[in-house]
Design brief:
single chain, 338 residues
């Protein structure tokens, strides 16, 4: 089987969550410069006052970017401390919480997830014991389960990205030390499957889910169970292949679809109970058109030769499954070439 793993780039992305506790920190914010320095952010983040820590964290998002050395992310994370971040990730609500209290809790969790995602640009933070302690929280948030049911898709994507970042950092560390045997945290694969189906191929949730599914395939010696579970995602994967023009995730999806069609459909694996797999139709279904459009983009663009070979293999597999008429798609307009 062919598996392509592309490391995620995780720039800081906080934005929409900045409403959390902002009313309580207005006076502190006035003390901060409009163009804060990293040292000023760290000074605020190191405070014992919650409101100042929050302001320091929010101001840090103006300072930290793709060009910032990863050591700066580690310094801000250390200044904030795991206890403060834990309070954001696991907001407490009363048994009789009203809509406003629940909304505040989701805002807090959203902010915590976004900041942790940003800090995961540092492999040291990503592979830390603190991140390992939060894995169950990230999985629940990625699945929008329990008290995280009200999270947005963007926040769920941040949660799954944190799971992926931790897992990839651990895999890379094991490889560098000549070790093996790493396994994803329980529930991560299932959460990613549910998220990908829920996303219908829309970003950023689809990309975060694909990363975990791709990594699962790479780490799994016997793929039968994983393929059965992931086959339900084929329509969403085809949508990503069509929509993610020129993005790294498009190549990961190409690899996953290649594996799924050869292992699941042409390999004759049975679907798990209660799962309806995509079926070939006389007229192309939306997933078939998305797949054909995505393959058109890959084969018509300046992609490496090995990627083109994989794309042609996928064309052959889908055509074998769907029939040669799939290739005609009379009403399908070719997408622009990258």
């Amino acid at each position: 089987r062919v598996v392509v793993i592309v490391a995620l780039v995780m720039p800081p992305r906080v934005g929409a969550s900045s409403k959390v506790d902002v009313l309580g920190v207005k006076d502190v914010t006035n003390e901060a410069a409009s163009s804060p320095t990293l040292e000023e952010c760290i000074a605020l983040a190191s405070s014992d006052v919650r409101e100042k820590k929050l302001v320091g964290m929010l101001l840090a998002t103006k300072v930290l970017d793709d060009q910032t050395p990863v050591e700066a992310f580690d310094r801000v994370a250390k200044a904030l401390g795991s206890k403060f971040l834990d309070s954001l990730l696991k907001p407490k609500t009363s048994a009789s919480a009203d809509a406003e209290e629940l909304e505040d809790a989701m805002m807090s969790a959203t902010l915590g997830l976004s900041v942790c995602r940003a800090f995961c640009r540092s492999s040291r933070f990503a592979a830390s014991k603190t991140m390992e302690y939060w894995l169950g929280t990230f999985v629940d948030a990625g699945a929008r389960r329990g008290k995280y049911a009200g999270l947005s898709d963007e926040a769920a994507a941040d949660a799954l990205t944190c799971v992926f970042a931790f897992s990839l950092a651990k895999v890379n560390a094991n490889v560098s030390k000549g070790r093996g045997g790493f396994q994803l945290v329980d529930g991560a694969f299932e959460a990613a499957i549910g998220a990908l189906v829920r996303s219908k191929g829309e970003q950023p949730l689809a990309s975060a889910a694909v990363g975990i599914i791709d990594l699962t395939f790479a780490l799994t010696e016997v793929l039968d169970d994983a393929v059965r579970a992931a086959a339900v995602c084929i329509p969403a994967l085809c949508a990503v292949l069509h929509n993610a023009v020129g993005e790294d995730v498009q190549l990961r999806v190409l690899s996953l679809l290649y594996t799924l069609f050869y292992e699941a459909f042409l390999g004759g694996l049975e679907a798990p109970p209660g799962v309806d797999l995509p079926q070939p139709e006389s007229a192309n279904a939306p997933w078939q058109n998305d797949c054909l459009s995505g393959l058109w983009i890959v084969l018509s663009s300046r992609t490496p030769r090995e990627v083109r070979f994989m794309a042609m293999a996928l064309v052959s597999a889908v055509a074998t499954y769907s029939g040669a008429k799939w290739l005609t798609a009379e009403k399908l307009t070719p997408p622009p070439v990258v």
